[in-house]
Amino acid sequence: MGALIVYLAFWVVAAYLIGWLVGRAAKGRGHDADRWFWLGFFLGPIALIALLAAKPGSGAPGADLEVTDTSYPDFDPAVTPILEVRGITKTFPGVIANENVDLVLNKGEIHCLLGENGAGKSTLVNVIFGLYHPDAGSIYLRGRQLEFKGVRHAISQGIGMVHQHFQLIPVLTVAENVILGNELTTGPLVDIGEARRRIREIGEKYGLEVDPDAKVGDLSVGEQQRVELVKALFRRAEILILDEPTAVLTPGEVDEFFAVVRSLVDQGKSIIFITHKLREVLAVADHITVLRGGKVAGSADPATATQQTLANLMVGRDVVFRVEKGEARPGRAVLSVHDMCVEDERGVQTVSDLSFEVRAGEIFGIAGVQGNGQRELVEAVTGMRRKVAGSVEILGEDATRFKPRQITELGTAHIPEDRTKHGLVGPYTVADNLVINRYHKAPYSRRGVRNQAAIHDEAAVLVEEYDIRTPSVDVPVHTLSGGNQQKVIVARELSGDIGVLIVSQPTRGLDVGSIEFIHQQIIGIRDRGAGVLLVSAELDEILSLSDRIGVLYRGKLVGIFDAASTTREQLGYLMATGSTPDTEEVAS
Amino acid sequence: MIARLWFQTDPAVEVAGADQNFYLYLLVAAVVVGVAVINRRIAAARHRDPATWYWLGVIFPVVSLILLLALPALAVDEGHLRRISRRQMVGIAFGLIGIVLVFVLAPNLITETRSFAFEKPVAGAQLQVGFNPSVLVLVIGIVYWIVAGLSFLPDRHDRVSMVAQIIAAMLAVPLIVGIGLALSANSVNTNVMNLFDESLVLATPIALGAMTGLWSERVGIINIGIEGMMLAGAGVGFTTYAVLGQSRSVGWLWFSILIAVLSGAALAMLLAFISIRYNVNQIVGGVVINILAIGLTGFLRSQVIVTSGYSKGVATAEIAIPGLSKIPIVGETFFTGRPIHFLMYVVVFLTWLVMFRTAWGLRVRSAGENPHAAETLGIDVVKLRYQSVLVGGLIAGLAGAWFSMESQSGFEDNMTNAAGFIALAAMIFGKWTPWGAFGGAMLFGFARALGTRLQFLDVEIGGFGIPSEFFQAVPFIVTLVVVAGALGRAIPPAAEGQPYTPAK
Fold first, then answer.
1. Chain A nearest-CA residue for B355
2. How many CB atoms lie within 10 A of CB B94?
3. Among B84, B366, B500, which would you mutate to test the A interface (most chain A Cβ atoms within 10 Å of its Cβ)?
4. pLDDT tens-digit series, residues A378-425
5. Of A61, A161, A169, which is closest to B369 when you measure between CB atoms?
6. Is residue B135 part of a domain?
7. Whose CB among A420, B340, B404, B445 lies 3.0–4.6 Å from B238's, allowing a Cys bridge?
8. B129, B162, B182 — which closes off a domain?
9. Can you tell me the mean pLDDT for A477-488?
10. Cβ contacts of B2 within 8 Å, gap of 6 or more
11. Burial class (CB in 10 A: 0-12, 13-18, 19+), B397
12. Quick one: B205 and B129 in the same domain?
């Protein structure tokens, strides 16, 4: 309605201007100005519209994207796969990302693409989606060869993709984000009303309700993902590529997401699902292809495959799932928190009256659904956030008002939740990031001048010891894969004399090989006598690593348990509800 | 008591903290009054007018206090100021100004009648509104109190307090002119419509420049070369007129304006080329364009225009929009003017319409926010950036033509006189929106017009001539307060200034 008024107003002004010009011209030639004014006023816009309409393609930029025929009469899904990838090879300078990759996707199927970070999964789907042009190979869509003519062509052929990092524009509304590139128009103006209606329609059909007028930046991660799905469905996607969709979701959101995925398949969509979470693969996949080092390492049938076989296929060697660890030998308390209260950015108290102790030589795990105060708790203990009340004692010193550096100097290591924001300085080199917690001390720096040789030597040793895969220690750290970035942090934090280790979500987004390595490191530091505070949203991680487990619910510890005598179900129940039906509580 | 009334509106506020704030303000008020009283004593001892010195003692601390209050509100980190919102702080500022107006200024102003005139004194009969400066100041002071109160409404009445503060800011115009008139040594009336007319005319190149900036920055290219693009338009355009048209004939004039528009576009293409194709730092690119334009136009003036012997010609003629210009009072001000001035309104309107209501505009905005997202939807970001910067350049060329072929006929070295940079400020003031930028341009135009007007009025306080620069600064202080409070922080397009390389 608003757009219509603006549109009409525009034409009135245009008509007035044309009329005025015509009138003036008429007056100059001695005619009746008024009559010519009205003539121009009424006939001018009509001529203008005719001009605009005569220009081919004008006024409807999205027209070329419309999928006109969705029935494909010569395509029989029973015989021909909807998508077939044959021999795709794609190289980047110095790296072979894909080498002779084949993939077959049948209609109405969920095809899982499994592989470690850097195995070439994202490259492959970017080739299918038309973002990358392959060096060799071909793609057959519904039995016909797909030309590599870029993203617009792929979209017009019914391929949709939800990228790992959402490709959304936070300041625009949901509706604007959805129609971008494929705008619905009336005349030259965008018809946002029609877009709104279509988005609601898609929402009802697939269970993807989003408010079309909400600003994308105000939405939660889960809602943003729904917008991405709506974007693809709005373009009438038949094949949906989901690139690590669950990496950013909380456990509850993951379940919701799988329900949506199933309803999409029920309505005839075909899905390529990229992940490295084995549990999810076995839960949803109809078919599994495993990539390793850019090549197809093998395929598997989810009915017969196990997590172990898949992991071995991914990594190329036997992976140990159950973390091997000896009996804990707890000593004196190295970290004690008393009645601590912490507020978040909005001034809401998210941690209240929290008390616990971590003893030397034990791992104290904090379980809980994301957003129950974990972030504020860790930030407060490490000195990054002000405490409203209570005290923190680290290695016998009152560290309540200590700054992060003072806490580090006490002998505390911190592996933060957000590695790109708090763990690393992205543009700095690997070497600099490896000493960034002690760069100001000898031998890395003397009288304020940095000693490059010492920094390089130390970096070379750590890269070797922690198996950090990097071309050199002088490349910016953000060019490394997520797993290697995390290894840089672990290497830096664990080298040195550590009394307390505070770890938050240490393996988020990492593949099985890196997870195994980092778990071993955490156990190792415990066995060397440090106290470890482990915060994680992965219940399996908490259960396999911790010696004692505290459950955080709405900023309070609702129970502390011995890891040996606790079950997954007990913890899950407590995390979700904050109360215990009947569990034996072990005094802290 | 008052403190409780104010602060209870915000549920997150602790009462203890609020009381601390209240005592703080009480203390500040006491200090202000103390300073003023001491000031008066000293003045009396030195045989100067005690009243004048008393006001000065009040006004200066209060103004500095307002600035102090407003500055933290501009800061990015709000963590430490959570207790009083930005808007409430501006409300307090208006309240303090109101107190000064009612208790200090109003009782001391003259009570003789002064008047605002609304018509050009042509046929003798002039529409005038007489007023008593003292009463005017009193009324506006009380309105400011009300606005201060409205600023503390609960959050759900956000719009009410915002509108109230914008009205209060607008009232600053009659307030400043009224005070100026009351203190003037030589005039008892001033023509308000003329003032608006001048503001609008002076705002023309600023608004056009702001639209240039908008087209460029919204698509992700920082443009500090607006000044250079304008100057090139002005210089090359007039050179064409002097050499080819021999400074005669309206046809040649319009042809030269077209050349001006195209030369603005040519420089814009240069900026686009070096920053998109070669990923040159966009600020450096803009500086290069500014320097290039100064050199180029300087050369054209001394070597071509001067030697051609046609350094003056006709400027574009006044036009009156038929019908509308016959409306009394406003007709002559708003509907009589010169063509580029009117084109400016069209450009602003079209900028808004195209950028916010068409598919192409949506794509332009997306390219400036997240070019990679646009790319995944099959949008050619590189092409879009060239197109949008080019549109901006055309507009800058038109602004250049205003300088050398509308405001006057002739070209002088560096005649744009930093208007391009003021345009950039207007655009940021308007938070990268066309109408906001237009408002910013109006404000800057008004400040210039007002400064000139107050110079003529010869304002005095207690025998001291107040420099016109002081009054010129007042609108900006008001702006600062309003932008800090009522409008909030301006967020530039997210991908602005970032080089973009498409995936292969």
1. A189
2. 29
3. B366
4. 999 999 888 888 999 999 889 988 999 999 989 999 999 888 888 899
5. A169
6. yes
7. B404
8. B182
9. 85
10. B22
11. buried
12. no
Q: Are residues B170 and B202 in the same domain?
A: no
Residues of chain B contacting A132 with CB distance shorter than 8 Å: 503-504
User: Whole-model pTM above 0.80?
Assistant: no
The answer to whether A187 faces chain B, any CB pair under 8 Å, is: no
Whether chain B has a CB inside 8 Å of the CB on A108: the answer is no
Same structural domain, B289 and B206: yes
pLDDT digit string, tens, across residues A11-54: 788 888 888 888 888 887 777 777 777 777 777 777 776 666 55
* Among chain B residues, CA nearest to A151: B378
- Cβ distance of B359 and A132 shorter than 8 Å: no
Judgement on whether residues B472 and B376 belong to the same structural domain of the protein = yes
**Domains of chain A, start order:** 2-53 (no CATH), 83-315 (3.40.50.300), 333-577 (3.40.50.300)
Q: How many angstroms away from the CA of B359 is the closest CA of chain A?
A: 6
What is the Cα–Cα distance from A425 to A429, expressed in whole angstroms? Answer: 8
Distance CA B342, CA A355 (A): 70
Number of domains in chain B: 2
Q: Do B359 and A190 touch (CB under 8 A)?
A: yes
From B353, B377, B503, residue closest to A132, measured CB to CB: B503
Is B117 in the same domain as B212?
no
Residues B198 and B94 in one domain: no
Mutate: best of A1, A167, A341, partner B, most B CBs <10 A: A167
Q: Which residue has the tokens 């005290």?
A: A391
Given B182, B213, B234, which residue is the final one in a domain? B182
Whether residue B167 sits in one domain with residue B209: no
Q: Distance (Å, rounded) from C-alpha A365 to C-alpha A535?
A: 6
Answer whether A180 sits within 8 Å of B374, measured CB to CB: yes
B495 inside domain: no
Q: Do B378 and A189 touch (CB under 8 A)?
A: no
Angle between helix B381-402 and helix B419-429 axes, rounded to 10 deg: 120
Token code pair at residue A355: 């008390």
Output the CA–CA distances (angstroms, integers) from residue A501 to A223, A465, A563, B38, in the order listed: 35, 19, 19, 61
Residues of A with Cβ-Cβ distance to B503 under 8 angstroms: 126, 131-132
DSSP string across B58-76? HHHHHHHHHHHHHHHHHSS
CB contacts, 8 Å: A347 with chain B: 12, 82
CB proximity B494 to A under 8 Å: yes
Is A9 in CB contact (< 8 Å) with chain B?
Answer: no
Contact B359 A161 (CB under 8 A): no
> Which of A27, A161, A169, A241 to mutate to probe the B interface, most B CBs <10 Å?
A169
With the CA atoms of A178, A180, A181 and A182 taken in that order, what torsion angle do they form, in degrees rounded to the nearest 10? 50
Is B12 in the A-facing interface, judged by CB distances under 8 Å? yes
Domain span including residue B460: 194-318+338-483
Is residue B426 domain-resident? yes
Q: pLDDT tens-digit profile of B172-223?
A: 888 888 888 887 777 777 788 888 888 899 999 999 999 999 999 999 999 9
Nearest CA in chain B to A4: B357
d(CA A179, CA B363): 10
In a domain, B21, yes or no: yes
Contact A411, A437 (CB under 8 A): no
For chain A, say whether B360 makes contact (Cβ under 8 Å). yes
Looking at the structure, do residues B125 and B238 belong to the same domain, yes or no?
A: no
